[in-house]
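The authors assume throughout that readers already know how a fold can be written as discrete tokens. In essence, backbone conformation is discretised, so a fold becomes a row of integers matching the chain in length. A single example would do more here than another paragraph of explanation. For illustration, here is how one protein appears when written out as sequence plus structure tokens:

…
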Amino acid sequence: MHSFPLTVTKILALSVVIFFICLNGFANEGSSLYKDLGFEGVHSNEVEVLRQKYLTTHKEWLYTILDNAESYRIYVRNQLEKKNLPPILEYLPVVESDYIPTAKSKSGATGMWQFMLNSVKPFLKCDDYVDERLDQWKSTDAALLKLSDNYKMFNDWLLAITAYNCGAGALRRTIKKAGSDDFWYLRKNGFLSEQASGYVPKLLAIADVCENAYFYGVEMPTARDENGKTVNIRAGLFDYIVVKKSVSIDVLSSELRIDENELKRLNLALVKGITPPHSEYAIRFPEGMEKSALHALERLGISPYIHNH
């Protein structure tokens, strides 16, 4: 049996040590790519089961939702940054409505943020002509205001998010009954309904997959450039013109010679396709169309005025 010279043995041993040092370095480098969401429970078993679903069987579903909703996501993200709210709230409409502005649940919850009719005041307007739950931008502002109010009430974001689902009053009663204001305790011990219990874990799983797509080795639309900056920063900026009488969105689109579906998409809150006959309404137009829209309305016999939104 041959033996290596001492110098060769030392070289081999040193090579093994270097290999493991490098391996550990790569592991640490990889882990540094992981973005901590800053919430307890992200790596719990409950979230892990859901995370694996969004990394495998539901990966294409999630990708499609994020891709289709880019302009809305950018507006939500910009508002979250302005208001210093948790970034994971960008993914709450995925949980609520698949980011579909016209979504309506069996219980009547409507819009991207799924407001119930009895919970719109004082956040949104709903009447025979206008349902602002369908307005992608106004409903976002309302939802973030409601979530902020919830946080002021519970001083905990997991509870504030849960209250958005089950109602603040119901959650207060649950906390009083349980004698605890810890979300994971309430969930583990059956104090929350099945829907409310699964709401936060689903959000955390989706947010984690989306925010750490590179870490998990999947591709997800980020709406960011190579430097991490949000693309199309002007998403959510429009021109607004106020009218005081009824005008048909279809007729206005024809007069402007633009796609009627685009103008309808910007004014989904007009449930009858016309502005209210006896009150002011600010019609939303693509940015840069103010002059054309003013002239078109005047040709239709409407006396408009510019609204500084």
Observations:
- Strands lie at 238-243, 281-286, 305-306.
- The first strand starts at residue 238 and ends at 243.
